[in-house]
Design a protein that fits this description.
364 residues; 3-stranded mixed beta sheet; flat; 6-stranded mixed beta sheet; alpha/beta
Length: 364
């Protein structure tokens, strides 16, 4: 399953620097991984997955195919964007197609880079963007509610459900709260998603700090983390400037650069992991001489659902899955010895796939 994340923020907060670092990373990976720039502001990036390389080495796989994540660099929003200010609300539509939103907040001081609000206050930055998204949601719902009310009064069950959820969202938004904080039952989740509310999307707050604070953050990023906890959002500290510098380095140069800064890995890796965590996703693998490949599925997915990510026919005609845990596959140096040791299991339709499972599917 594809994962699409919108990068949003005020102008001059480091949003485009972060996006450019992501796409340069992808360009550097082009020799080994599939990459394409779909549009000037959209890029597909391989999800960092060290386990995949190890599996490929053991199986002698000719090709490595990681899972991918798409980032969309939404044009800088300003106060009044929902009413057409700045570049206007045309760019808000870009967010509706995404699975999550990464709010970039400026947590660094640099007199050479102006701030559109003439001050450095990351929490206020986040509030401006969130307010514009809430206003856009309000306008969208208020335009739809009259028509839905008519259908609901006529006995349309689907319209009645939609109206109930619209009213729930309106209550939340009018109280100055994003729609993601509303309590929605499992039975209503699909209809809730169909409302396409900007503020119902899972949120990740990205605190963009200066180089010296890249490892532990600073006072400004701490305020962002506090705000994220209050808003039912995740947060991550990153230095977009550092990421843009290391994106084009080879593995050895990158390692040395990061060690010099006291970092274990690029911040982009943390960003992508947080996006996965936010959406409740995990990875399983298929491995063979031809290719080693990572697949993205929701946590809690069953074996047939996992098979369906490869092809819908695999799910429809599912018979059973053969699976071995990643640690067992590596410890026993491959599938053959895992089978001999009894670590390769046959699982049926009820099996819940675990992160890192190496799988083969048998289907009709």
């Amino acid at each position: 399953m594809a994962l699409k994340v919108a990068i949003v923020g005020l102008p001059n907060v480091g949003k485009s620097t972060l996006f450019n670092a992501l796409t340069r990373t992808a360009a550097a990976q082009a020799a080994n991984y599939p990459f394409c720039t779909i549009e000037p502001n959209t890029g597909d990036v391989a999800v960092p997955e060290p386990r995949l390389q190890k599996l490929a080495e053991i199986a002698g796989s000719k090709e490595i195919i990681p899972a991918r994540i798409t980032f969309v660099d939404v044009a800088g929003l300003v106060r009044g964007a929902s009413k057409g200010e700045g570049l206007g609300n045309q760019f808000l539509a870009n967010i509706r197609d995404c699975d999550a939103v990464a709010f970039v907040a400026r947590c660094f001081v640099d007199d050479d880079i102006t701030h559109v609000e003439n001050r450095i206050d990351p929490v206020s930055d986040l509030e401006i963007i969130e307010t514009e998204l809430m206003l856009a949601d309000l306008e969208s719902l208020e335009k739809r509610v009259v028509n839905v009310e008519k259908k609901a009064k006529g006995g349309d069950k689907e319209a009645q459900q939609t109206l109930r959820l619209i009213n729930l969202a309106l209550e939340q938004l009018r109280a100055g709260k994003p729609a993601r904080l509303a309590e929605v039952s499992k039975e209503d989740e699909k209809a809730w998603h169909m409302l396409q509310l900007l503020t119902s999307l899972p949120a990740l707050y990205v605190a963009n700090v200066e180089e010296a604070s890249a490892d532990k953050g600073n006072e400004l990023s701490a305020r962002v983390a506090e705000r994220a906890a209050r808003d039912n959002a995740n947060s991550v500290v990153i230095s977009a400037q550092i990421e843009s510098e290391i994106a084009v380095l080879d593995d050895e140069e990158q390692k040395d650069f990061l060690e010099g800064l006291g970092l274990e890995e690029p911040g982009l890796n943390r960003l992508i992991r947080e996006a996965y965590k936010l959406l409740g996703l995990q990875t399983y693998f298929t491995v063979g001489p031809k290719e080693a490949r990572a697949w993205t599925i929701p946590v809690g997915a069953t074996a047939p659902q996992a098979a369906g990510v490869i092809h819908t026919d695999f799910e429809k005609g599912f018979i059973r899955a053969e699976t071995v845990a990643y640690d067992d596959y590596v410890a026993l140096n491959g599938e053959a010895r895992a089978r001999e040791a009894g670590k390769l299991r046959a699982e049926g339709k009820a099996y819940v796939v675990k992160d890192g499972d190496v799988m083969h599917f048998l289907f009709n």
